[in-house]
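Submission sheet (multi-component)
Chains listed below:
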Amino acid sequence: MKNLLVGQSGGPTAVINGSLYGVLTESIRHPESIGRVYGMRNGIEGFLEGHYVDLTARLSEKEQQALLYTPGAFLGSCRYKLPEELTDPVYPRLFEAFLGMNIGYVLYIGGNDSMDTVSKLSRYAASVHSDIRFIGIPKTIDNDLVLTDHTPGFGSAAKYVASTVREICIDASVYHTESVTVVEIMGRNTGWLTAACALARRFENDNPVMIFLPEIPFDQEAFLSGVSEQLRLRKNVTVCVSEGIRDKNGTFICEYSGAQGTDAFGHRMLTGCGKYLENLIRERLGIKVRSIELNVSQRCCSSSLSDTDLQEAVLAGKKGVLFALDKKTGVMVTFRRTAHSPYAITCQAEDVGNICNLEKTVPANWITEDGSDIKQELKDYLFPLIQGSVTIPMKDGLPDFAYLEDL
Amino acid sequence: MKNLLVGQSGGPTAVINGSLYGVLTESIRHPESIGRVYGMRNGIEGFLEGHYVDLTARLSEKEQQALLYTPGAFLGSCRYKLPEELTDPVYPRLFEAFLGMNIGYVLYIGGNDSMDTVSKLSRYAASVHSDIRFIGIPKTIDNDLVLTDHTPGFGSAAKYVASTVREICIDASVYHTESVTVVEIMGRNTGWLTAACALARRFENDNPVMIFLPEIPFDQEAFLSGVSEQLRLRKNVTVCVSEGIRDKNGTFICEYSGAQGTDAFGHRMLTGCGKYLENLIRERLGIKVRSIELNVSQRCCSSSLSDTDLQEAVLAGKKGVLFALDKKTGVMVTFRRTAHSPYAITCQAEDVGNICNLEKTVPANWITEDGSDIKQELKDYLFPLIQGSVTIPMKDGLPDFAYLEDL
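Outcome: structure written.
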């Protein structure tokens, strides 16, 4: 009988605690193999400083349920890279701590960087013949992990983005005057989340009429021509851009905002690419224009959870426990889509060494030739991931979340 | 038997179409007095150009229901001020159109400026002995209309702001490193909406720890001291500021952002006050900081509707019809709070002449002495307005809104 240690790492998502719920509830179902469930405070970084919490003893049934819709990382998170050299003294220190707590299973919920942690720990374990098993549970709104159809956290972010863009398009269309709205979506290197804006349309040629991903070089002149052309067809034009769009030289479009601008403190002033394109349109087309940066609500909004995403986040946590009990180590839980309609997935375990530090970008053949829209195949891929709603328990008119400090 | 004409004007809210629903459904209940219900397209401006639609004939029961949760202005909106001089030829033109359509009642849903339209039309009617009745239905997320306890549209915006700030505080607290988050809320001259951020707290001294309204002069040095002091008490500090905060000289804080900054086009670069304060904190305190502008979702998010607000928006529309049938004219529907707990309101009719072009600010005695927070009285005032949730019908994973072009 061994104890289980679980941690969260990297940027939070709206359902990262759903995976924690999955780990916790599945662990409790195996009292013959798993004793206590410990949670690292602030990931491996906090654990290295001795911070952890006994979740078995402290979470009531109601608190466990609240994990399902609580955004942020319930256990706290970190952005910490373990040393490349497995000879570094941090490794024996960690394994001594694991031994002291009688840990048999370490589950780490995170993205590319966090899988690097799982990879290093499992390789170190092999090198010292430790039988502790290390499992990665995927999480990222960016949907950029390889070897998996998609990633928990992405579906809810996509649903938030699609709903919000639909509302913005309505809001932008109330006046009978020409206007352009530029919406900036998260995604530095991959355009999965920005692609979800296409789901906001109710019919072909509906707003948002253009969508730009970082995968395709962005041409400012072609963009202006496209906006002008759209303004000949309709009064109100909404375009969506990924924060990471860059030109053919690889220069981020947002970097042009600082080309001549300095702030009140004499510093080079960088705004997002949305703000830059707003200024560009106003300057060159002389049209009423505004830009909107969707910001952190993309990863922490609880009122637009995708039930499909939440259930899959829980499933990933549960499968992680089952894989650990099945003697797997150095693997991440992945999804394979086995059917489109009705949509179905199965779970696999893939070597984290083939996943960590890699990025899955949107395939070029899922983007239109002129680079200003996505193709039906990508819409079909996205569609099932945003289905289903989650009712959030409210208290005093606001969502009643779970907080570790309340325990 | 006369027909009824209804219009929407000014910036939209999440429940402005709830008032339209109220007007429409109440009108249908009085077939002895009200014939057809016409909707102005894009307010009085569009109507002047001959644009209107017959709502009686065209909205199915299902479409009427969908108005209840559809953001934006279903009929389209305008920002159009009628001429001050009632001798202007626009007035006889309008009344000729009313006559041609056999209009007996004109209901106008809007804020301060829209009430100016109601005032002018009713005064012109009196001057020409027309018996057409003009009624104002209040709407604004700013809650700045006088002679009413509060305004439809505000409660849902307040609920959105409080929920979102609560989620942002959670998102901002995941890392174990010192950080400051500045959230910028809509409200150029009044701080009602920013005050709602206080509802995001779960206990005293919870984040957001400071809240700044435009009603109190903003002191940058005192602000920096306050932030530093808070950082001695906690790792993560969230502060909320109204977009309209200004210093003791009346200069908007956002204007300081352009004091030295120019954009890539050589233009003076104005960012919001949130972005300016972010830069100020980074420069002066050297701390990790980010700013978030909540933007238009404050007035168009459908997933955080306050049921109290929605029901009151419908009520205001219905009362408007009843007041018109009761031979009232030149009045706006107002709310009086008759009980705090359980909360209750009654409706009155107040002369629009005493409402239009005036602004109700937050009383100074509802703000703390140092100007960095609100008092319990204001929280008590806000609390009932955000209560109750609304379930939005979904289609294909997204809210299924009503669109006039679909009719």
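Remark: Residues 154-172 of chain B form the longest helix (19 residues).
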